Amino acid sequence: MRLVTEAAAIKAAAKQCFVDQSSVAVNLFIKALQDRKVDTRNKLTRIVESTDYLKLKNHNNVVMLTRNIFEVKTEQITAPPPVANPSAGQPSKALAGQPSKTSTSVPPPAVSLSAAKVIESTTPVPALSVNCDTDAIVDILGDIAIEHLDLEDTGLTDIFIDVGCNMSAKVDGECVQYDKAIAHSDVSTILEKLPGGGPTVKQSNRVIFGHTLHRLAAVTYDGVINGITIRVGRSVSGLLPVFKGLVEDKNVLLCGAPNVGKTTTLREICKYLSRGKCLCLIDTSGEVCGDTGNKGRIVGTSRVFRPVDPDQQYASLLDCVRNHSPDVIAIDELNTKKEVEVCQTIALRSIQMVASVHGNIQDLVFNPMLNKALGGSTEVLLSDRVAVDGRKVAMQRSTRPIFDVVINITRTAQGLKYLFIEDVAENVSRIMQGKSIQIRTRRIAGDELLETKEEVLFPRE
After folding, report:
1. Neighbouring residues of 90: CB distance < 8 A, sequence distance ≥ 6
2. How far is CA 30 from the centre of its chain?
3. Which residues contact 338 (CB under 8 A, 6 or more apart)?
4. What tens digit of pLDDT does each residue of 119-130 get?
5. Which of 38, 42, 130, 282 lies at a CB distance of 3.0 to 4.6 Å from 33, suitable for a disulfide?
6. Residues in Cβ contact with 158 at an 8 Å cutoff, skipping those fewer than 6 apart
7. Share of the chain above pLDDT 70, in %
8. Are 82 and 446 in contact (CB under 8 A)?
9. How many Cα neighbours within 13 Å face the side chain of 456?
């Protein structure tokens, strides 16, 4: 009888951990088992092998779900087919030519749901408007773009060109190979077409070319440029319903994996918050609004600052406070501890902060260089009585977070999801303790905005 009970507990633990992803850290799965009184001491391998739906990988550090064991739908709604990429606004079309995909699925978000989703509201939204200057890419790449790329495909986000390799691109989060071998002459021709004959690689190694949002970066080897990465830039209008009502008069941090839509969302928030306010935007790489001629239609009445030296981004933040009377300061990509400390100073002066950072929220919570944005962390020694799973050292938040709301953007099979963590101080503490948190999730499906309340368990270090 005990074996039947244990099997049911194992399946229940799996259902808790794998609702929205196919793999999870071992320590998270062990915690779910222990919550159900399953003895895991030196028995994890036996527990996994006793099932036909789990296996261990990555030197037994990750548990993977090998088949679907779920019987209950997580969203009980009837809606039009979801947009494949809400940040772009419409589903992707097939690529020109005959590309072959190098992977079979989009990586799942590093989140596991511990409770079924509950739909709170479904709100009609206007259609998204997507603008992309494809002619500028054709001008730079020439026949390479015309013969091999479908530039109208809104799932196309990056183009990779490396000498001695076939050209590849990222489409809907997957890397796709093309039947086009790249030679040194291809790279040289592309660089010659840029203003100034090539990117300045000594600083940020980013060039916004033309009057567009497209970004080019060089790949160098021994000081020689032998590769190019082009990020396809698009401006998207119509995302306002996603964050309206949740960002007004609050310090907002956008986080998520690279190329998931943080900058796109930042543009729309800047356009919205600049209505009737002085908003100063630090656009160090030029990626937010590109050429200054784009400013009005992309970021509204925001005043845009571009530091000459990317390493002095924090100095531009301070200059805005001292000399330009801002109501709101926005910055794309916090990179250093110094920048986070300046943001803390600004927030203490009753100026609203909006910023973005690479990495999901759990990455930031455990990042010693940047986690001060969420209140920092310190280690504390626990007594035997309160130790969790035998751990006598625990992390706790050391100060109040700079940001009042964190928007964690993730890519799923249904498109982009916007996870709003609203009580940042309390929820960061719970993430450090390995506890689940309550979040609000919004996503656009067709012409509807879907809002849910979810209980989420983020992996803990």
Report:
1. 83, 84, 128, 130, 154
2. 27
3. 314
4. 455 677 777 777
5. 38
6. 169, 170, 229, 230, 231, 232, 259
7. 78
8. yes
9. 24
The answer to whether 26 and 60 have CB atoms below 8 angstroms apart is yes
Q: What is the pLDDT of residues 300-329, one digit of tens each?
A: 889 988 887 778 888 999 999 999 999 999
* pLDDT at residue 168 tops 70: yes
> What are 320's two structure tokens?
């805005």
Helix, strand, coil share of the chain (percent; to 5): 25, 30, 45
Residue type, 49: E
pTM of the model: 0.67
Domain extent listing, the chain:
2-65, 133-231, 236-457
Distance between CA atoms of residues 423 and 303, nearest Å = 30
Q: What tens digit of pLDDT does each residue of 27-81 get?
A: 788 888 888 888 887 788 888 888 888 888 877 778 888 877 654 333 333 333 4
Alpha-carbon separation of residue 389 from 32, 45, 226, 266 (angstroms): 12, 18, 51, 40
The region of weakest confidence among 208-217, 253-262, 369-378 is: 208-217
Task: Please name which of 217, 242, 223, 224 lies closest in space to residue 163, comparing C-alpha atoms.
Answer: 224
Q: What is the CATH number of domain 133-231?
A: 3.30.450.90
Report pLDDT for 95: 35
CB neighbours of residue 425 within 10 Å: 14
Residue type, 263: T
Does the domain formed by 236-457 have CATH 3.40.50?
Answer: yes
Instruction: Tell me the C-alpha to C-alpha distance, in Å, between residue 200 and each of 16, 120, 195, 207, 399.
Output: 49, 50, 11, 8, 40
Q: What is the DSSP string of 222-248?
A: TTEEEEEEEEPP-EEE--HHHHTTTST
Tokens at 266, concatenated: 């930042």
**pLDDT for 111-155, tens place per residue?**
444 433 444 556 777 777 778 888 888 988 988 888 889 888 888
Give the three-state DSSP class for 4. Answer: helix
The Cα 15–Cα 435 span in angstroms is 17
* Interval 385-397: pLDDT, tens: 655 555 666 667 7
Residue 4: both structure tokens together = 């039947």
Phi/psi of residue 195, nearest 5 degrees: -60, 125
H helix or E strand, kind and range, residue 25: strand 23-25
Encoding tokens for residue 129?
């408007």
Give the distance, in angstroms, between the CA of residue 409 and the centroid of all CA atoms in the same chain. 5
Exposed, middle or buried, 409 (CB in 10 Å: 0-12/13-18/19+)? Answer: buried
Residues near 294 by Cβ (< 8 Å), separated by ≥ 6?
211, 212, 213, 235
How high does pLDDT run on average in the chain? 78
Query: For the chain, how big is the Rg over CA atoms in Å?
Result: 24
